[in-house]
Amino acid sequence: MSEARKSERLANLKKPNSGHPEYENQSIRNPAVNEQSITHNTDSNKENGANTASTSGPAHKKIKVNDEHLKEKVAETDFEAQKKSELSRDETKDRKTQESKEAAKDEPSEEIQKTAPKIDSLEIPDDLELQLENEKTVNVKKDVINDGKLKLIFAYPKACTSGCTKQAQGFKKIYNELEKTYEGRVEIYGLSADKPAENLKFKQELDLPFHLLSDPERKLIHLLKASNKDNTKTVRSHFVWDNNGKLIHENIQVSPDDSIEKGENQLTNFLRT
Questions:
Q1: 129-272: which CATH architecture?
Q2: Buried b (16+ CB within 10 A) or exposed e, 178-201
Q3: Does residue 226 sit in helix, strand or coil?
Q4: If we measure between CA atoms, which residue out of 127, 119, 120 comes closest to residue 143?
Q5: For the whole prediction, is pTM greater than 0.85?
Q6: DSSP tag of 228
């Protein structure tokens, strides 16, 4: 073999994995090398596994702790919401009970007169006079009933009480709405046994757009039979007269809501005919 060939072969021997068949699959032919590589990889995997375990373990525990904390918070929130709901229901119940008690003060406890005035037979005396809340004296028949307008008079037990306030506010709304469509064709009056000063306060507090009739001697109240048996207390009622002064509707012993609803229907139905 020539010297050049020997030098080339020697150089190739110094280059590992040179691609020469003799040196391919060296790792297979050299078990020591392969075993060392496997051992190294196994140790690395164990180390990585240990690192993963040391990292994921506490994190997983922390997530569980956070979940339990969240559940406790949700439970506390649900409990607080339930307590608030119960308190709200109790407060609503107490308020309704108080309103019922206050409303009961408005109504007479004695037996109510059951016989309403007959529409065809009711006659307002020519000389019956009452005072308005401003202390102006009016003739009921001439100045109120026979003024040429559709008329509603609602009787209420006591000014500035809850039920009477609700009734008056309802008729205030009705009056304002009807004025938009039927301007000047409808008149509403309140009627009670309160003194003019008490009715004035009532009107001012609610900003009522109509007058309140004061009937301390219960003359008109008794005539309309909007009172208890011995005429000592007023029964919540309302009455409607047409524009010719004829009584066309009477509603005695009604709740504030019924008085408002029926009164509105009776007025609007007449105006539409």
A1: 3-Layer(aba) Sandwich (3.40)
A2: beeeeeeebbbbbbbbbebebbbe
A3: coil
A4: 127
A5: no
A6: B
Distance separating alpha carbons of residues 22 and 13, to the nearest angstrom: 10
> Can you tell me the distance from the alpha carbon of 41 to that of 121, in angstroms, rounded to the nearest whole number?
116
- pLDDT per position as a tens digit, 199-227: 999 999 999 999 999 999 999 999 999 99
Where are the domains positioned within the chain?
A: 28-104, 129-272
Alpha helices (H) in the chain, listed in sequence order:
3-13, 26-29, 31-106, 162-181, 196-206, 219-223, 256-272
Q: Beta strand pairing status for 247-252 and 237-241?
A: antiparallel
According to DSSP, the β-strands at 186-192 and 137-139 are unpaired
Q: How many CB atoms lie within 10 A of CB 222?
A: 14
Residue linked to tokens 């009016």: 138
Q: Is 216 exposed, middle or buried (0-12, 13-18, 19+ CB in 10 A)?
A: middle
